[in-house]
Amino acid sequence: MAGMSAINLLDRATALAEFFSPRIIGEVNDVYVKIAKIKGEEIPWHNHAGEDELFYILEGSLLFEIEGEDPFTMEAGDLYIVKRGVNHRVSSTEECSILLVENKSTAHLGDTESEITKSVEEQLAEYG
Q1: Res 73 pLDDT > 60
Q2: Is 4 a member of any domain?
Q3: Does residue 79 fall inside a structural domain?
Q4: Is residue 2 situated within a structural domain?
Q5: Which residue, among 23, 12, 39, has the nearest Cα to 96 in the 3D structure?
Q6: Which range, of 2-6, 39-43, 86-90, averages the lowest pLDDT?
Q7: Residue 44 and residue 89 in contact, taking contact as beta carbons nearer than 8 Å
Q8: What is the domain count for the chain?
Q9: Range of the domain at 31
Q10: How far apart are CA 99 and CA 49, in angstroms?
Q11: What global pTM score does this model have?
């Protein structure tokens, strides 16, 4: 990713071919900056035992569920940080584009395996 130039996040998100498939578009020190598109309810309950996770809504709205709390909806421009170890899941009835900031060691769905789980290599594939 050396020699990167400015990135238009909305253009990159629009170009994503798959839902629930984060793509790494940059790195800052020990964290990856990722974009993803969400539509539907395929993300299972999961947590990241050792890392916090930042969500920023680029377009659309995202239903956010935290175990044991009332669900809430995030809209474009909203930011939320999930603290380590907190069980959560997200969904969206319409297409939603998000930016994620996660440690390089963060597994896509923590220890939860599903058909949408992506490795770091798969997340790097499109932009690496």
Answers
A1: yes
A2: no
A3: yes
A4: no
A5: 39
A6: 2-6
A7: yes
A8: 1
A9: 9-124
A10: 21
A11: 0.79
What is the CATH classification number for the domain harbouring 73? 2.60.120.10
3-state secondary structure the chain: CCCCCCCCHHHHHHHCCCCCCCEEEEEECCEEEEEEEEEECCCCCECCCCCCEEEEEEECEEEEEECCCCCEEEECCCEEEECCCCCEEEEEEEEEEEEEEEECCCCCCCCCCCCCCCCHHHHHCCCC
Sign of CA dihedral 122, 91, 57, 67: negative
Retrieve residue 29's tokens.
């020190």
Cβ neighbours of 5 (radius 10 Å):
4
Residue 33: both structure tokens together:
């900056």
Q: What tokens appear for 3 in the block? A: 């020699």
User: 49 to each of 11, 36, 41, 60, 107, how far by Cα in Å?
Assistant: 32, 22, 22, 28, 10
In a domain, 3, yes or no: no
